Amino acid sequence: MTADRDHHTSLPRWLGAGFGVVSAAAGIGVAHLAAALTIPAASPLLAVGSVAIDAAPTPVKEWAVRTFGTADKPILLGGIAVALVLVTAGIGLAASRRRWIGVVGMLALATVSAVAATARIAEPLAALPAAVAAVVATGALLVLVRFGSASGRSPDARPAATRESPLDGRHVRSGRFLPGRRGVLLGGPALIAAAGAGGGTLVSSLRTSDAAVGRDQELPAPVSAAGQLPDGVQLDLDGVTPFVTPLADFYRVDIALSTPRLDASTWALPIEGLVDTSVSLSYADLLEMPMVERWITLSCVSNPVGGPYVSTGRWLGVPLADLLDRVGVQPGAEQLFAEGADGFSCSIPLDVALDGRDALLAVGLNGEQLPVERGFPARLIVPGLFGFVSAAKWLTGLRLSTYDDDIAYWTERGWATDAPVLTQTRIDVPGALESVPAGEVTIAGMAWAQHRGITRVEVRVDDGEWQQAELAADAGPDLWRAWSLRWESTAGGRHDVQVRSTDGTGEVQTEERTEPFPDGARGWHSIAFMVQD
Q1: Rounded Cα gap, residues 8 and 20, in angstroms
Q2: For labelling alongside 98, which of 23, 32, 150, 210 has CA 20 to 30 A away?
Q3: Do the Cβ atoms of 493 and 530 come closer than 8 Å?
């Protein structure tokens, strides 16, 4: 062991660290390609990141969503990548002196990845990408350490004309830079990493294109169409949210680190549990069933007061009541437990699914098949419930059960079991701290209380009297409603605005502020804006 250590003492520290990083990168790149050819979610970074999301304490999850919004997952991946660079740099440094430490280090990282993948994916091939990463990373590190070691004399002992730069591994000859041995050694694994990652991305894109996964089919005409929205639902005012949300702007909050890509030709949805007859529906079976189309507004429990996580669309799907009637519900069933390909699960109260509301197993949105990011091939939509208890995407199974038998993903983490949507009101214009001309100021925004509707919106400026806002046309209790108020400014400078709504049951939105955990944010939305003198 002493001879092994002494043989490598001439290897610069920066080079040893670099060997560790590029070796790991090569392993991860090739593993990404292997995952793309087998199980994409088993790619090492994705597998570890997904387990990190599952294992993170609820306060950490809330902080991430509150602080980073929809960028929380890219930031998580970036953090894992930075940590991996630091760890593998340390492994490379250790390997330059003790090769066995490098082998153990790379195998330990691969083992973490394999455990993470198999913990979330119950398939034999789930550990394959990690095994590939172990072989490639370990082999690359041993080769680099062996051939990158100095050959008995210090680089500084070479003639000045051919001295190797410690920064880039290039020789200087007659004023020209040429690749050196160490530069080639570092570049080789880097190219392998790039080729593997690029190849994996290409394979994934080909395997998950719309045509490849069956997202190129014509949807059936509904037996009950949504119809046209009433005139006047949209305010003709710059800055107010569009009543119908374009597909590209639909909010997305979920636990999926990478978007599941399910092939509709092989996809099947089992419906089982406390039922008279278990069934397994293919995508073709689903499209042959009578469907309805409905305008529905969705909102996320993670939405802070006045937040952006709310969208409206025209949904096409099979009523859940029809599906449950088909299988027959046995006595004792309390919930419809739904599971998705991303590892998410939710529990819809059975009485809600059967109370006559437009609860759907949806396959279409705004006139086309569900976008992959929105849950293709099928997802759940239940008006009046927050998504974390009702809106499972990328469905893989439905089960009639009791709350004791099946506990939903967020319920296990301390969130509410049943979570009706709360009454919310948002000020869209003026924007916070926006400067507006003196005179008449239009204050406007959106309000929602799905399945109860909005009957009144009131606005207060500078702690004055509450003034009733003008409501846009009502499109139904499952949809949000635009509102506006014209206010005459009498003084310049800062003005504070608060807004509240009354829902269809007569309940006035509460002033008391709460955080989203465990069942949604409460409180009036308030902003400040500036009137020009």
Answers
A1: 14
A2: 32
A3: yes
Q: Say which amino acid occupies 13.
A: R
The CA radius of gyration of the chain, in Å to the nearest whole number, is: 29
3-state secondary structure 344-383: CEEEEEHHHHCCCCCCEEEEEECCEECCHHHCCCCEEECC
- Token pair 């319920």 is found at 411
Whole-Å CA distances, 510 to 183, 215, 425: 65, 44, 11
**Cα angle for residues 397, 398, 399 (degrees, 5° grid):** 120
Q: How far is the C-alpha of 125 from the C-alpha of 140, rounded, in Å?
A: 23
Q: Could you give the C-alpha distances from 392 to 253, 256, 329, 339, 346, in angstroms and in order?
A: 11, 11, 21, 7, 6
Residue among 427, 436, 407, 447 nearest 497 (CA): 427
pLDDT score at 469: 98
Q: What is the pLDDT of residues 402-440, one digit of tens each?
A: 999 999 999 998 899 988 999 999 999 999 999 999 999
- Closest by alpha carbon to 263, among 216, 203, 202, 198? 216
Q: Which two tokens stand for residue 85?
A: 């660079």
Nearest Cα residue to 116 out of 343, 338, 339: 343
The 10s digit of each residue's pLDDT in 135-146 is: 998 888 888 888
> 0.90 exceeded by the pTM?
no
Contact 28, 81 (CB under 8 A): no
Q: Give yes or no for a contact between 203 and 37, defined as CB atoms under 8 angstroms apart.
A: yes
In sequence order, what are the residues at sequence separation of 6 or more whose Cβ sits closer than 8 angstroms to the Cβ of residue 521? 303, 304, 305, 307, 422, 424, 513, 514, 515
Q: What is the 3-state secondary structure (H, E, C) of 451-508?
A: CCCEEEEEEEECCCCCEECEECCCCCCCCCEEEEEEEECCCCEEEEEEEEEEECCCCE
In eight-state DSSP terms, residue 456 is E
Task: Report the C-alpha gap between 328 and 413 in whole angstroms.
Answer: 31
CA distance 109 to 47: 12
Burial label, 259 (beta-carbon count in 10 A; 0-12, 13-18, 19+): buried
